[in-house]
User: Fold these one by one.
Assistant:
Number 1:
Amino acid sequence: MSISNRRQFLAGTSALAGLSFLSLAGCGKTTDSIRVGFMLPYTGTYAKLGMAIENGFKLALRELGDNPFGKSIEFFTVDDESNPSKATDNANKIMTRDNVDVVIGTVHSGVAMGMIKVAQETGSLVIIPNAGANAATGTMCAPNVFRTSFSNWQPTHPLGRIMVEDGHKKSVFITWKYGAGEEALASFREGFEAAGGEVIKELFVPFPNVEFQAILTEVAALKPDAVACFFAGGGAVKFVKDYAAAGLKSSIPLYGSGFLTEGVLDAQGDAAEGITTTLHYADGLQNPKNLAFREAYRLAYSEEADVYAVQGYDAGLLLIKALQETSGDLSKKAQAINAMEGAKIDSPRGPWTMSRAHNPIQNFYTVKVNNGVNSVVGTAWEGLEDPAVGCDL
Ligand code: PHB
């Protein structure tokens, strides 16, 4: 953070701290607990993603024991339903009504934009464990907002080059029509064209619709060399199954950002075999940290971990840095921010560092579904940093 930004932020939040102290009278805030708020989707197409994030986060916090720094940890939850029109209300509920010390949120880029606007007013510490909205660590970057996942620019940045290397020069891109998909597409186009590819058609469905029939008929008629896409969660299950059922799988190879096959392979079954993606994580990463993490997650939740669980876990590891620096007192905001800015996270995805804009600088892998596992077949980009256009932290 630049010195002038830091001064401005701290001046702003100490005034706010006074206000929130007044408004807190009688609302039961004690200093003997650390108040953590989850603003995540617990219903809808991204419900499973929200739960995996919460699970991963709690797994990391276990590393602190039951009473870290002599305090208890209190959790507050709001289901944001991946609904941008409710984002402001939901962010106010968790930041102002519940008055949490830190918000872990959220998954959907549109909801994140609304949430960040509120956080800029309240000064609340926010750790984004998924939503990739470029602006979160770009034009809307803020001293109190950190991300442990990715910017939407990142995962599809290397994808076009990989497809051209595989011999595919004419591609169709399919996505839900909202921020995350549109930013994934823009970044894909950049990389694909730079490598000599051509996007012959962009096809959209409104979020969170899963009626793909008309689009798949159009793909069959267009006969591209390959299809690239952005889908995740429940929608990714339906898209991959429909793509195979339409008979396209063997003639037009399917690519995507790795969310397409994360946490959903069991549900997709054979339809997912052979899909190639790029992502900052893969279940099949063979480093000791990932193997231990996956084992601990399986033991704790009787489920397989996925990229969302990892991003939640890393949000926990990042918060631990802030807690260690402040002896558990997150009202020491400048110290907490300092610790998070300098963080080097020993993640199951491999080690990563925080960029000046508060977004991970991390490796991206080429991942292929092989016998029901997201297997790493190469490193698509080493140490990729989002350009953070418009951020002057
Ligand atoms: C997003 O809306 O930013 C988003 C949602 C789900 C993903 C990735 C990005 O898997």
Number 2:
Amino acid sequence: MKLLIARPMTAAVETRARSEFDVEIRDDTQPLSTEEMLRALTEFDVIVPTLGDQFSAQVFAQAPDLRCKLLANFGVGYNHIDVQAALASGVAVSNTPGAVTDATADIAMTLLLCTARRAGEGERLVRAGRWQGWHPTQMLGHHVTGKRVGIVGMGRIGQAIARRCHFGFGMRVAYQSRQPKTVEFPAEYIPNLKSLASTVDFLVLAVPGGSETHHLIDADVLGAMPPSGILINIARGEVIDESTLIAALRDGRIAGAGLDVYEFEPSVPLALREMENVTLLPHLGTATEEVRTSMGHMALDNVAAFVDGRPLPNPV
Ligand code: NAP
């Protein structure tokens, strides 16, 4: 069984992979090119791909003799893989849910707090040596405690964010998802996204990417938000129509945004980079040693199950 891991991993994950499998670990941190994906599909039994590796229907159609039987994705989000096309080609897909939940919720709170309290702007001010000292109306931001948060996508990560907002910050929680949820704290289900957007101080996105959620946040939803509203995105960049977001921020139709992901990642529009009222992170959601190691182990657990002929622990 030949395994390809598409990126360098943490030392613990690479050590396990080398001890358990006949593995090639790619040395490059950039996504696989089409040629590399075609080679991988024809020369390896299992691939551990990740964000940016665009396993599209076209790629599966181009691969002449498929050897690959499993894409054990590193990450919970798998919108870069055309799952229907993979399954139709006899390639199973698995992912790494759960391992990422708390770390990603923590980054959502980082973005929410930084944007509301102008922490990025303040940090830049101090570092530039331009801070003139405290005064009663210096850099007034938005109060967070007790405010109303709207979660779009009340799944594992959405609920972890809501929990932090409720128990940590006394916030009132409302949410939208395809189905109402049973949770251990008060949370109002508002199935209509515009209605949700119009009643909250913070709108936090935690849905999967893909065609169903592409540009879910468009001019209508942004227009429904109050001018004091702040948008937070830890989901996938293409969930927001980015140019419409830029226009809404520029025109003061919303107060700010905190973004971990971008529509054309890793390209971040200059317009966003020039705005003081946005917090911009380089897709840090799961970026801790512990979490990346857990994700790697989870991906390898799926590989091991495949090798042993057992059911995959995390099929998608
Ligand atoms: P999850 O447990 O599957 O939750 C997804 C939620 O989105 C579910 O509540 C689902 O609703 C809802 N949803 C799906 N499609 C929807 C739609 N069209 N409209 C409204 N709601 C919809 O997934 P998760 O583990 O929380 O992860 C969520 C996403 O976060 C991942 O797919 C990934 O893209 C992203 N993520 C980002 C980072 C980062 O580094 N920034 C890290 C990890 C994950 P129902 O439950 O009602 O079906």
Number 3:
Amino acid sequence: MDKGKQEKTGKKYQIIRLIHKVDGKILPLFLISAVIETFLPYINIGMPALILDALSKKQGKETIIFYIIITVLLNAFILLVTSILNYFKGMRSYHFSNKYSWMKTEKIFTMDYPYLEDSDFINLRQNIRYNDEDTGAFTGMPGRIAGIFQACLSIGIAFVSFVTLFVQIIFSIREKEGQATPWMFVLLILFICFSIWTVRKLQKKAEKSIPEMTEKVVSDNRASMYLAEEVVHNYSLGKDVRVYEIDKLVIDEMEKMDQSYTEYCRKSNKVTTLPGAISSASSAIISGIVFSVVGIYALSGMIGVGSVVFTVGVVEQFISSISNLIFRMGDFSISCARLDAVLKLFHLPKLKRDENNVVKKAGQYEIEFRNVSFQYPKTDRWALKNVSLKIRNGEHIAVVGTNGSGKTTLIKLLCRLYDPTEGEILLNGVDIRSFSEKEYLELLSIVFQDFKLFAFTLGENVAAAESYEKEKAREALIKVGFEDRLKRLEKGLETSLYRDFEEEGVEVSGGEAQKIAIARALYRNASMIILDEPTAALDPIAEQEIYEKFHTLVEGKTAVYISHRLSSCRFCDTILVIHEGKLVQKGSHDDLVRQTEGKYYELWNAQAQYYMK
Ligand code: ADP
């Protein structure tokens, strides 16, 4: 087998394995149903043929009535069984599609973070949306596979009858010279082969061109998809859209996307429907030829009335099953080609680490950055260069620097979202990569600059869980200064945030949201708390409140406080100054502000102008 073919077969096998992994019972159910459905047409071909033969041979009334009753009973039985199976198939398909969506979501939730910021991964997500979610390529797979199985079974049954008839007629022709010749059959077989060849060729073209077309439309429409998903569906952006009349930009972009997507659908529909159309047309021609041939032989008396009905029925089944098989095989291959991106998603490897070390619970933790340098993937700029620092147990550290200096990057490395490009980060002298990720992350509580709250209840947001300790959640909210607001909420912790699901949901202000996010970090009760620009959205009074409470908030914990507002860092034990990815100064506020040549002095004075006014 050549490599391309091997790859394709491998892909199909992987898809079948994935179906089995999503729901091991769905394929057997669809296959059983296919077997039963295959017999129905043959009963309705065979039984009327028996009845007609009995009539033409003038057999007794009882025989005929017996055949009729058997026909009705068999039909009723099969229809009943298929209806029951259809019910189960429907239920199973629903479960199958939900479980599949969940598996994709779970994969995305648990994959290494760098993928999420990688543009290739964003394209992959888009590709999955166009090729799989919009077309049902994967969820329709059990039906497609069962269809292929049913067509093969039907061909098998019809083939035996068809060959018997063929041989019988060939012998009859030899006996009756001057009648129609076997050439008709030879032509027929040639025509069938030609049709199969044409349809397969077109299908192969479709299998090849669909992924290429999608790749193109996905990369053309990335900006538009961002607008469609982030701007149109995110109602909290409604204000900006109105004030800045962003709607014009969105509409123009959407129109552009609509044009290219329509063009994509036109081309992809053309290549996918053409094989089906040709296959149907060929079937019609083949049926015409077969009926004419059988008609000629019936007129010449070579076959009886019952046999004519049976033969015509079987031949019709044979042809429709062949055309069905070709169509379904093509449909299956095209759908497999559409699932390239899904397979890629499930195969994205996890970074291999030797995570054998155990994080000691309730210990003293010291973090050390040793000569750490970092470049974001696919960039050649150093976001951090040769950073060495220590964060001692219980120490309150501030990291300051202008925007883009590398503060958040430092935190991303500390949280193991990325691994250092050079150097290492140590926890109590051991590389953090060697600890189990889950155990290591349990040590940390983080409020990111772009934190997210969810449209769940306030309590669930604080606890990041459905069931939680109410008193502990309340305490965390009180600690961050949310007490007055909490008292004003009729449903207290049970209040739903935002109006995505609940009409009575509460819209919290940016500052309130930030307080809730800090409360969430406190609820977690981790040993180290990291606050990335935690007061950016707070009003001056709330900001002051957080500063004053900072030591109480993080009492007994190691705290890393990141800000470009220097006034908010004065109270930390040590201040680290980052500039253009390098650690340029380190010390207490009083020490640093005295070093008039230093970056801290420059930043402090630049900002102090505003505080002094
Ligand atoms: P700060 O938090 O100090 O504002 P960051 O750590 O966010 O700065 O960014 C440091 C540098 O890294 C900046 O030049 C920024 O543009 C770059 N950067 C941040 N995130 C990414 C990313 N995902 N891919 C590439 N470059 C990035």
Number 4:
Amino acid sequence: MTLNILFASHTDRWSAYEPHLRRALDGYGLSYSLSTKAPPEDVDYIVYAPNSDVQDFTPYTKCKAVLNLWAGVESVVNNETLTQPLCRMVDHGLTQGMVDWVTGHVMRHHLNVDLWITAQDGDWRAGLVPPLSSDRIVTILGMGALGSACASALKSIGFQVRGWSRRPKVMDTIDCYVGQDGLDAALSGAHMVVLLLPDTPQTNNVLNASTLNKLAQGAVVINPGRGPLIDDDALIAALDRDHLHHATLDVFRTEPLPKDHPFWSHPKITVTPHIASETRPSTAAQVIADNIYRCATGQKLLHLVDRTAGY
Ligand code: NAP
């Protein structure tokens, strides 16, 4: 039987994904038709990006799964027309990209790289030796696919790493916390906090005036998760009164970040344009093909979104 697979993403992604998807699907020996247009009632699987034209899933009556190309699902998870199983993207290329980005930005602040880039004025500033990584506490909020990989990488460099998640976790040499009390404990005295939580009603403003206050004086906030995780005004207030040293932000409540947003001109904020990591077609195609093969052969789908938890 031929499987009808619809690629429903932004039109410019088709040329990037098509060869990789075909190669990966061929590797499973599946008989399939893969296209950007198909009669909805014939479609078996939708390879999906939330910014595609497909917003009403009602006509896709025999669709067995919607396979999201993005890790974050906040813009599709509450779509009431979506009754089919929804899988999110867990891709080792995406994970490696996030580990690279988070490690780079943690090391920037750990080594005070900005100082040395600007301190080329002939003044021999002896004695400004950075502390050891083992003297720094880095807390990761969100210990899923991305957060736990970043935690392991930072631990292997030498940092003291704490993690916070919704359900209890056991990870060798990483202190793991859950719940509101756990959040306070995870943030208490931390020198850096990295946000890798999904955007859900429960995670909205997880960093606010009260939780920011738990961090060590001079702490750094790094947010590659989602904009609504942080109360923007509380963040600016904490930077302005020098409780925080810096914030590196990759994600925002409104994207693109409006040109007149105060984050752009704030001297203690670095803005990056949602580039921390992205799904890589070569590795993601393998994940998609694997899930289609699993479903077509009666196995359980991987990376299923829990619609009640919202991620
Ligand atoms: P994931 O595997 O689903 O992990 C999410 C983590 O957050 C899990 O540890 C989960 O806890 C925890 N969590 C969820 N709700 C919580 C709550 N109410 N309290 C405490 N912990 C909670 O997701 P992921 O693949 O690691 O991705 C994380 C996020 O990164 C995505 O949702 C997306 O927003 C963002 N992202 C950004 C970029 C970028 O370029 N900036 C790229 C990719 C992804 P449990 O472990 O207990 O479930």
